[in-house]
Design brief:
This protein has 356 residues and is α/β, with parallel strands linked by helices. The protein contains 12 helices and 17 strands. Strands 1, 2, 3, 4, 5, 6, 7, 8, 9, 10, 11 and 12 form a 12-stranded mixed beta sheet that branches. It has a 5-stranded parallel beta sheet with strand order 15-14-16-13-17, with helices on both faces. The N terminus is likely disordered.
Length: 356
């Protein structure tokens, strides 16, 4: 196997809005030859391989140390590819495709036989999306292959939202990394199980429940796992079964009434500091200002604009380890809009959750 064996990884740097055609061709040729390439999407960086080549897809699992029962999302660059990979596409999806694609929405559908079982963890369904990132679309187009791609990190660790994160995690384990700076949203796509009626959100993402219901004009259920609960069976979508997004440091999430959350966090902070623990506070701008803090803080973003929290989330979790903290104390957020996606990630990353 080429990746990992030689420890050689090509780094291809480019403008996120103006893909370098020559470098895209290099990456596409690697894909065509059965290699694996990390590339940016609008959500997080993905690690891609030819979705129709089982041997190539296997390299993704090896590079990431990813459990084989965790299915992959297939990324396409043209809407027509949806019908090549999936069957029984509901009319309501066809009617809304132009509104959600390209974009951070993934549909789980019945798969055609062309899709290898390794991509779907042996399930009869496949998860498909069209990313809204110029580099991702250019790569898929040039490779002339749909790309199976999970996040480009070691399994279980915080997802990568910058090229430097991918280089740190996977250099020497993959064939090439396209570094196009920071991603746009910072959390993975919303995954909708379209084989159910009503449809079910399996993983919350940038497009929230309320907005999706307006777009598709249908009631949507939320799978219990989407709230951060655990499951035992083979999942239909990535991020449902295993602990994800976790830093090496212990993460304690405090959620509930805002005033009580801040009070509890400060009590825990003082207790841990008295025990000589290296502890950081992962808080919103508003909370830091309200508490008058000026040390041991990692700014998540603004409570008034949770998209800023989502964009900074994985970078903030990585900062815990980069700055040598043993413990992170993190505030919770409202379970609405992109807040649901934020809390899904935090609950899965947390070592302990405290409700107040």
């Amino acid at each position: 196997m080429r990746n990992g064996a030689l420890g050689m990884t090509i780094i291809l740097r480019m403008d996120p809005l103006k893909p370098d055609k020559a470098k895209i061709r290099i990456a596409a040729k690697i894909i065509q030859d059965g290699g694996i390439v990390a590339f940016p999407t609008e959500t997080v960086y993905g690690l891609g391989a030819d979705a129709l080549n089982p041997e190539a897809v296997e390299k993704i699992f090896i590079a990431k140390n990813r459990p084989p029962d965790n299915p992959l999302i297939v990324h396409i660059s043209r809407k027509s590819q949806l019908f090549e990979l999936a069957k029984e596409v509901p009319d309501w999806i066809i009617e809304v495709l132009d509104q959600v694609w390209p974009g951070p929405v993934t549909f789980v559908l019945r798969k055609r036989n062309i899709v290898p079982d390794i991509v779907t963890a042996g399930l009869p369904t496949v998860a498909i999306r069209m990313p809204a990132h110029p580099v991702a679309l250019a790569l898929i187009d040039e490779a002339r292959k749909p790309l199976a791609a999970p996040s480009a990190n070691i399994s279980g660790k915080p997802s990568p939202t910058r090229g430097e994160h991918v280089i740190k995690d996977l250099s020497g384990r993959v064939d090439a990394i396209i570094d196009a700076g920071e991603t746009f949203f910072g959390v993975e796509s919303t995954v909708i199980d379209a084989t159910e009626d009503p449809p079910v959100i399996l993983r919350p993402g940038p497009i929230g429940l309320e907005e999706l219901e307006k777009i598709i004009k249908k009631k949507i259920r939320i799978h219990p796992v989407a709230l951060g609960n655990k499951m035992r069976e083979t999942p239909k979508a990535p991020g449902m079964k295993y602990r994800h997004y976790a830093p090496e440091a212990k993460l304690i999430l405090v959620e509930g009434d805002y005033d009580q959350v801040l009070e509890q966090i400060m009590k825990l902070y003082q207790t841990l500091k008295n025990e000589k623990k290296r502890v950081a506070l992962l808080l919103s701008e508003e909370s830091i200002e309200r508490l008058g803090l000026n040390q041991d803080t990692i700014v998540l973003g603004s409570r008034e604009n949770l998209y800023t929290v989502a964009k900074n989330l994985f970078k903030s979790l990585r900062s815990l380890d980069e700055k040598g903290y043993e413990i992170g104390l993190c505030e919770g957020f409202e379970l609405r809009g992109i807040g649901l996606a934020i809390m899904n990630r935090l609950r899965k990353a947390a070592t302990k959750i405290i409700h107040v």
